[in-house]
Design a protein that fits this description.
Strand content: under 5%
Radius of gyration: 33 Å
Number of helices: 1
Order of helices and strands: H
Structural class: mainly alpha
Number of strands: 0
Distance between the termini: 91 Å
Shape: elongated
């Protein structure tokens, strides 16, 4: 991109230079750390909920299997 540029010329106008104030940068870093902490907490809560759902499904299956069963009368037509 710069091969054909003469020494001392300005770079093309489509290049954007960004300067960020130190206080804004600090706030961005703090926000980033807060977001990472929130993601970690959400993942832990998700794991806990998945475990609770699994336990509920297990208990539900056991209740179905251990519930009293009525005999079914089978008839055969001839």
């Amino acid at each position: 991109m710069y091969e054909n540029m003469d020494v001392g010329t300005n770079p093309p106008h489509n290049i954007l230079y960004i300067t960020v104030d130190a206080s804004i940068w600090t706030q961005i870093q703090n926000d980033n750390a807060t977001l990472k902490q929130m993601v970690t907490e959400l993942r832990l809560n998700n794991e806990k909920l998945q475990l609770q759902i699994s336990e509920m499904n297990t208990v539900g299956s056991k209740e179905i299997l251990s519930s009293p069963k009525k005999p079914i009368k089978m008839t055969k037509e001839v």
